Amino acid sequence: MHTLQEFLNHTKGMTYVISALLLLASIGFWLYLTGREGGE
Amino acid sequence: MSEQSHAAPRPLLSPFNVVAALLLLLGGCAAAYRFAAGLGPSTNLDHLNPWGLWIGFDVMTGVALAAGGFTISSAVYLFGMREYQPLVRPAILTGFLGYFLVVVGLLVDLGQPWRLPYPFLVQSGPTSALFEIALCVALYLTTLFVEISPAAFEWLGLKRWRRLVHSMTMALTIFGLILSTMHQSTLGAMYLITPSRLHPLWYSAHIPVHFFVSAVAAGISMVVLESALSHRALSDRVEVSGERLDEMTVGLAKAGAVVLGVYLAIKVVALSLDDEWALLLTPYGHWYLFELLGFVLLPMLGYIVGHRERRPTLIRISAGVTVAGVVLNRLNVSMFAYNWRLPAADRYWPHPYEIAVSVALVTFGVVMFRWIASRMPILSEHPDWRGEH
Amino acid sequence: MSISRRGFLGTATLAAGVAAGTGRARAGAGKDRFPGYAGSMGLLHDTTLCVGCRACEIACARENHKPRPTARLGDRSVFGRLRRISDKLYTVVNRYIKARGKKPAVYRKHQCMHCQEPCCASVCFVRAFTKTPEGPVLYDPSVCVGCRYCVNACPYHALAYEYDNPMSPTVQRCTMCYPRIKEGKSPACADACPMGAIVFGKRADLVKLARRRMAKYPGRYVDHLFGEHEYGGTSWLTLAGVSFDKLGLPTGCSHRPLPELTSGFLSIVPLVITIYPGLLLGFYSFTRRKERLAERARVEAAEAARAAAEEAAAARAADQKKLSEARQKKAVDLAVAKALATRDSEEGAGRSGGGEEGRS
User: Fold this and answer.
1) Is residue C20 part of a domain?
2) In chain B, alpha helices (H)
3) How far away is chain B from the Cα of C109, in angstroms, using its nearest Cα?
4) What is the ipTM score, two decimals?
5) Which residues on chain C place their C-beta less than 8 Å from a C-beta of chain A?
6) Which domain, by its residues, includes C354?
7) Stretch A34-39: mean pLDDT
8) Are residues C188 and C301 in the same domain?
């Protein structure tokens, strides 16, 4: 890794993928958390 | 309802239709010429000014003015302001059409528009602010499409689909708010990398926040304007009474005043942080003050008085001034205060063809809104789904 | 740029990152951690030696298969106005200061500066630009969408676009003669310069060379080497005898690379993605809770009202019953008394019958 550009490209790309996964996970998280609550 | 509109069809040769058709034809011709001859002959773009009206207005301004959708749906579904429910659908429709036109405008401007999916399919550049915007706009346009689809499902009588989408309202609203926060501010962030080109009064490390807050102000104001206009123009489709609309307008003015107040405050903060007071005395400074005082402070006062005295007309005028102010701000950042160091001869001014395409896009948006709103349950509830939101 | 480098988002870099091990993980986001490619090449333009012959322009046009400039070698008429880089002119020599008395005119050659941390590479959403280890910043036209953000963002106005090409326009700019460098040759402009005003070599050596010149002839040069630190540094270095803002170059530039400015903001984006769901569901729960409490309060109030009404009704019914019982009893008593009186007076059988009557 020699340039800032390479580093940013690497980290930004990975972070996009990870944040997308986390966003998807948050749906399941919420549904499981509130699954036993009656009604909506 | 549909029988009603069949019984009294609008005349095809109304002045509105004739003018709209002319503007669309002009813009269509200009766009065709752009693809036949290239960007060079059809625009005033050059190597120093590669972005013109099609980016500054169609994209920058278009996205800001389409912010009503996420603003109102968040207020109603997330913050429980149920009394504004009748405004949600028209706002989302305006948003959807706005983003759709942004993409159309972008396709005209791009050098090789058929490569638009390349950042997602071929090779992505995640260090670019534009990558984030492309991703968000693509996802948000889809979100808005899904959010407005119940209107079409009700119109077509597809009850199962209508119920399915309705069950996702909360997720869609949250997703829309996330995407909007991101790309509205990232549009401003596109200029973070150009400190030597954008005039210091408009350049700020906070420009993403400026863009986001002013987009919220634009969104609220667009909802005020669009509800008033459609109430007048499509009165046979509107269910909400004039008094109820005035009531909601007075309520929106409160939100508008607060958002414009916040915007004014953060603009002053940016002046202070970068110590740009002396620049206010230069010609660019006067132009900056014109924008800030005439198109932020003034409509804010209009909203305040309009809310306190319950004067819907004053509020609607203020909304118009706010929208004009956001247009002016985006044009200032992208055109008038950009490349400000270049000699006057090298500065950019839009070509008539560029203006023709932009005008045609706005016209197309209005025509589409009218077409959809006079057929689908946008301004009124569908009898089968009354009170179900 | 080969196909294998391509990929959506981090998938390609993810694999590369795993392969490269964890060494990079220690690196922070600052420029100081990334010294650039050691031994990369650069060019030094000494404007005090340039005489404005434009041999470099002509050599550049030949090398890049561009139309030969109409003005011939040594033609001074072109200096009447400031010329700009275009898709047909990768490099351009301008006269910034006219000759006055003994002082010679000042010319400067302009072209892509080949930044150490290129702005164009950072703003490109298809990663069309690459900083090569050899020094040149290369552009891959096969992925270019034509958004022109690179042209718009370049602080040196050094990129051009093919506006006259309707179907497949691309960005046009100096390549630092990358193919020639790969062959071990100097860039065409450096070879063509008859004055030695363009020196090709290792960038690190050129910085030292420029320093030596500035130290040796302090009256000849201003004490600044343009491109050493500007926005993180450039491969093209410029020496001058006058202030650089008189030569059309920005002065007072930050030493931080421009891409850092966008990077800081883009770091907030994942925060929005990760914080908003929790925050908004919190707001939503708050709203729902308020609505539910209001609903419960309404139900309870209704229940209480109904209970109160029922109680009142029951009490009224009880009163009624008591009243009617009392009235009945009174009637019975009256009847009994009457019967007793009759029996007393008549003295007949039916004593038990009268009791039964009273009980019913």
Assistant:
1) no
2) 2-7, 15-37, 39-42, 53, 62-65, 68-73, 85-109, 118-121, 129-156, 159-166, 169-189, 207-233, 242-273, 283-292, 298-309, 312-331, 352-373
3) 17
4) 0.91
5) 9-11, 13-14, 16-17, 20, 24, 27, 29-31, 33-37, 116-118, 121-122, 127, 131, 133, 232, 257, 259-260, 263, 266, 269-270, 273-274, 277-278, 281, 288
6) 271-359
7) 78
8) no
